[in-house]
Each structure stands twice: as C-alpha cells, then as structure tokens.
Amino acid sequence: MNEKSINEQYASILAFLKKGRLKEALTQLESFLWQCPNWDLRMQLEQVQMSYKYLLDYMRQGIKDPERWNLHRKLTADAWEMADHAHILYLDKISSKYYHEMRRTPAQPQFANFTQRQLIHILESFQDDLAVSGLLSEDKMNEVLKRHEDTLKHLFIRTWTHYAWTAEEEEDAHALLQSKELITDDLCLFTSAVMLGAADCFDLRKINWLLDAYSHPSAAVAQRAITGILIVFHQHADRLTLYPELNQRMKLMEEHPTFAKDLEHVYRQMLLCQETEKIDKKMREEIIPEMLKKTSSMKNLRWGADENEEEKEDLNPDWQDEFENSTLGKMMREMNEMQAEGADVYMSTFSSLKNYPFFHHIANWFYPFTEKQSDMHRALKMANSHSLKNSLLYVILQSNFFSNSDKYSFFFSICQIPAAQQGMMFQQLSTQELASLRDEENAHKLEQFNQSPATISRQYLHDLYRFYKLNVHRADFTDIFKQKLAFHRIPLFKEMLMKKEVLLPIADFFLKKGRWTDAIELFGEMEQLPFGEENQVEFYQKFGYALQKEKRFEEAIRTYHKADILKPGNSWTNRHLATCYRMTQAYEQAIHYYRKVEEIQPENANVIYYIGHCLTEMKKQDEALNYFFKLDFIEKSSVRAWRGIGWCSFVCGKYEQAKKYYEKAIEQKPSAIDYMNSGHVSWAMGHIEEVATAYGKAVIASGNRQKFDEMFENDKEVLAEQGIPHQDIPLMLDLI
Asked: Of 265, 247, 166, 256, whose CA–CA distance to 212 is shortest?
C-alpha cells in the first residue's frame, strides 16, 4: 500500500466509527490489518469482533443488558485505537513525514538500551553533576551540559513519537511530577513532548498525566499542561465521549479552584494568537515603514553635527502634538493597545531569526530560556558576559516580555556582533533605566508579571505559534492556529465554558476583530442561556450588529426588534433598524426609525442625510430637499448634501439649482456619478455640447465604459420623465 491508500482506508474506518456504525468499521479494520506486521492487533480485533457478535446476538434474542451501551462504547474505543496503531505502523515504513522519520531513526548509541526511568535518573542528577563540574574545569562543565542536553532531546523525541504509554511508563512519568531533583525547565519540556505525542496519537494515559500536571506547583508546568489539554481535546474531540472515566475526571477538574478560569483565559489567548498574521502584516507593511519614515523626517529637523548642546534639545513642543496626531502616533497607540491585550506584536521582528542551529532540533522550540541550556552557556562564555549581565538587555532577556524562542533568537543575534560593538551596546544599555528596574518596588512588580499564569500562558502560546509557523518541519504538523477553535463545543468542556460570562467576552472579541461569522455562530449558541434584562438588550444589539455586518439584514431586523421590545426608544437600536430597513429597500419603515432617532438627535447629520435619501427613493423629492438643505447648513462644504440637492432639484425640474450644486460637488470632490448627473442636467437644459463633455469625464472617472453604461442604464427612466426622447439616448452615447 502507498501512503495515500493507507490514509484513505484509515479515514474510511474513522468515518464509520464517528457515525456509530461499528460493524462496518470492524469489517474495514479487518481488511486494514491484513498486512499489518503486529499480530497482537489482529488478535485484539478478533476479540472485539467476537464481543460485538455476542452483543448483537443478545439484542436479537431480546435479552436486556444494562451494560450494552457501555460495551458498545468500549468496543468502539478499542477499534479506534487499533486503527490508530495500525495506521502509524504502516506509515512508519513509507512516510517521509518527520514524525515517522523520527520513529524510524535509531536512538543514539548511549541511549539505545535506556529505559524511561533511567533517562529520568540522568536528568535528576543534573544539578549535582553541574555543581561538581563547576569545581573542576570548563571542559567538565561542557560535558555535563552536553549529556543533559542529549538526554533531554532523546526523551523528548521518545515521548512525542511513542504510540501509547504502558502502565509502567505512566508511573515513571508521574514520578517526574513528584521529583524534587528535576529542574522545572526539564519538566516544562517533557510536558510539551507529552502534549505533542497525545495530539498526534490519542493516549488516555498521556491525557491523564496532563491533567495531573496542571496541579504542579510550578505555574510554568501548569500552564503548559492546560494548554496541552485544550489542544489534545480539540484534536480528538470526536472520541472523548468514548471514555467515561475521562468524563468523570473532568467533573473533578471542575472543582479545582482555578482550572475553569485558566481554561477560559487560554481559550481567549489562543483566539488572539490567530490574529497574529494580521498583526504581523500590519507591522511589516504599515507600522515599521512609518517608523522609519518618521525617524528620517525627525532627523531633518536639526541642523546636523555642528549643533551645540543647547540646540540639541530645542525641538518645538508643537511637534510632539504633531506626532501624537500623526499616522505613526495612532499606529503606536494601537500597537500598545494590542500588546496590553496580549497580542503577539513581535512575530515580524523575530520570524527571520529562527535559522540558528539551535532551532534545528524540535525540542529547542519548547525549552524555556535559561543559561543552563548548553548553547546559551557556550555563547555566554564567548560573549562579553560580565557586561551583558549588568545591562538592561539582560534584565529584558530574563523577563517574560518575549517568548522563550524569541529570547534565544535575540541572544544568538547579539552573539554574532563583534566583541567591540557588543561592549558598546551593553554600555549604552547599562543606564539609569537598569537601576530603575532593579529598584526593589519595580523588581517586585517585574517578578509578579513574570510569574503570573496569564503572562506564562501567553509566552508559551507565542512559542507554540512560532513552532507551528516557522519550524522547518511545520508542514508535517497539524497547525492548531489554522483551525476553527470552539472549545466550548467539546462535550467535556461544556460545563465550564458554555456560560454567558465566558462566551460573551469571546463574542465581543470576534466583533472587535471583524470575525462576523464566528460572532454570529457564538451568539446563536448563547441565545438560550439566561441573561439579565439589561444584558439581554446588549446581547441582541450585538447579535444584530454581527448579522448586519454579514449583510443578513432580514435576520438583523428580527434580532434588533427583540432588543427594541426589551428596551423601546433606544437610539442605537433605532438607528440600526433604520439602516437595515434601508438596505432592504423598505424605505417607509426606515424613515419611521430614522425619525425616532431624529427626535432625540435633531442635529445628527447622518440621520438627516439618510432621511433625505429614503425620501428621494420614495420619490418625495420636495420633502427630501428640505433635509438636504438642513444638512448643508449643519455640515460645512457638505458634498453629500450638494449631491442630494442636485439630484432632487433635477428630478423636480429645478435645473439651474441642480446645475449649481453639481458644479460645487465637482469642484470640491468630483466623482463619476457627479459628472454623469451634471450631464443629465445639461441635457434637460438643452446644452448638448456640455452633455457629451460631462459624460466623457464620467467615463474616465468610472475607469471603463462598462461601468458608465451600467450607471447610465439605471437613469434612463428618469431622463424620460425629464422629457429626453428615448430615441436620442443611443445617439448621445455615441457622441461621448
């Protein structure tokens, strides 16, 4: 079999299992296992087939069996696991994917016969070995670091690519959680390996280990564990209900004081990570170029190198206001807001710095930033480490402002700089800011920030995002950030996440990011949840707004009416009802709601304009003119008012007035429609040469003749009403 046929057979089996059609799934599985080298799987299949045969026989005989559905569920789970195992074994022989490549690659000779427990013992002895080696020589120190590093990498690959833990391996893994000798960074890396392994191949023991790891005293371990739980549950959502023991375990987790809150936070943070590509694009194409442009222009404000000390700080204070109101100022404020929200604003900065040898091994994408990492230790020895450790840069590297992988990138980039420049850079960074950061109060705040679960989970998710987007084998991994994330729909999370206080902020996030379809789906799911009356009004307003943005105007109207019933007379609701009615060409209803808003906001220019617009569409031009003149009075140089006056005047036969206002519009802000309507007026007045000229300009402004013809077609009836013979129309069009 080739890889394609293997995947197709596997997918076919899973399709039957998901539909509960176990008999057909077992028939397919029997064919699938025919050439499988693992005889144990074929024996397991025979046992499952026999058990299912007895179950069906008992049912045929009418025998009541209270355990029937539990047995059916277990047999389905067993069949699924056999299909998983066989699928992996087949692909191990032929697939070029990194996962199977690693499974085929023999272990390094020094680890060939090591058990998981022995590997753990090597890691547990690291602290003592490091202390002893520090008393001996640098070579001995490097040897200890190398052994520790190699052991970690081997354990990571082994854990990730291991099909399923045995009871003994599960016990060893739990010993890691209890170990007092193991350093936290190593446990963090192991947690990520367990997550990757369970995501690639369902393993109940690994899932239970992640749930246990959440209770670890280290926030770094706990946050990696809960992130892993979300990812694994998302990847295997279809089969979670097959394990009643997992359902019971999750009920216990609901009682944990922080689990539900952390689950909710990581959920929102993962959704925010999905916006990184947009942020990255904005940084590269807008913010950074604008910063460079502004920096260049600010340099030109000074005379140059000959200025004296007094002149160095004589920038005009008005320039600060100019910056605050500039495009760059607005962009910088937006970036600060995104950063405060937890958005990943550094992806564009560091994405090109992931080509160092350090990132060639998959484990290093997940290892916390530490001087005990072997590459770091060697680099520090080569770099001016004393100057570095006394610089502001070092404090930044030790903080959690950046992700771990970005800090490694940053550090290795610095190491590429010649020693002389390094010294100068560190000296520049060893300033008053460093002393301020090391002030007791500020140091305490920084420590609180670094250790908060929110900071740690955000930092880890940014590491994960870079792994899925930038590692050289990324095509071989299922990118969680490309998928639709709806954790509240996963059955085992529903009790904790299907709540209005959890989902409303997520819906608001979708609204803020313009993800209208996601917002509509979520509001639809929340509609049956209990709300207070005031909250319910806001709920229906937001729901209607999302529908309106998706141009589902009829549904939006129904939804806005629910808000209107709960809170009549609300200007916001009335204005949006009016808009939706206008978009569906129900102008009479639109005017009804616009006038309700007008009663409260008589000077609202938009409301005045749209009332005039609706009246025009209803052919009440005289009444519409009053509104457009009012708009012209309220707004200075109102082109839209002039266009409205021009059109209504033309339809009413007030050609001189129409001509006057179209000329004003063309002088201020000409458009294709202005030129065309000006031509209509000239034609009605009998100024034929002006007509052809105006229409010609309209064609040019339209971009092509086809667009002009489409606009013109809509006005033929109005031209006829103004006495233009229809026979003259094709002749005039030929004059253009």
From this structure: 256
Instruction: Take residue 111 and report the two structure tokens written for it.
Output: 């680890």
Give yes or no for a contact between 100 and 91, defined as CB atoms under 8 angstroms apart.
yes
SS3 state at 429 = helix
**pLDDT on residue 302:** 35
pLDDT digits (tens, 9 = 90+) for 544-591: 999 999 999 999 999 999 999 999 999 999 999 999 999 999 999 999
CB 601 within 8 A of CB 571: yes
CA distance 427 to 422: 8
Residue 312 confidence (pLDDT): 44
Cβ atoms of residues 279 and 338 within 8 Å: yes
- What's the token pair of residue 142? 């490097």
For 473, the token pair is 């084998």
Q: Which of 58-62, 316-320, 530-534, 585-589 has the lowest mean pLDDT?
A: 316-320
Angle at 648 between CA 644 and CA 653, to 5 degrees: 145
Instruction: Judge contact between 470 and 351, C-beta under 8 A.
Output: yes
d(CA 361, CA 232): 22
Token code pair at residue 51: 């058990």
Return the exposure string of 651-660: e unless at least 16 CB atoms fall within 10 Å of the residue's CB, then b: beebbebbbe
Q: What string of DSSP letters covers 131-172?
A: HHHHHH-HHHHHHHHHHHHHHHHHHHHHHHH-S---HHHHHH
